[in-house]
TrEMBL record:
Pfam families: HTH_31
Residue ranges occupied by any HTH cro/C1-type domain in the UniProt entry: 25-76
Transmembrane regions listed in the UniProt entry: none
GO molecular function ontology, one term from the record: DNA binding
Protein name in the entry: Transcriptional regulator, XRE family
CDD domains associated with the record: HTH_XRE
Amino acid sequence: MDNPADNRNPEREQFIKQFDAGQYLKQLRGDRSLAAVCKQIGVTPAHLSEIERGRMPSDHLISTLARVYEVDEDGLFRRWGKIPILTKDEILARKSLQRLLSEMSHNSQLTEAEKDELYDNMYELYRSFIQKKNQEENFK
């Protein structure tokens, strides 16, 4: 039996993401005119219209749109299939994180499920660390 993942078309999937994200922006704009929103974000109505029809915006514009529409910036980046700016900055600033991600992505002994499990464990470790730190600060 064929694995559907083997028949994936990454370009098509990205196009669909971009189209869906553009439709989402159009929804967020609601009754506001293109001109009114464009004035807030500093682009032409033609440019915003293209983005609403699926053109990929710049990272800076995604951040601006999130602020103007008052939505989660990371979520908006994910809708476009992009990595949020703060996440990119953190990866670039942390050599140990780069090394970890690189080694895990190149390790052929790990399945995707095992990688996900490791990432979930790291996230839980982080949450536990923060919770402990907050408790310690509350006792001061």
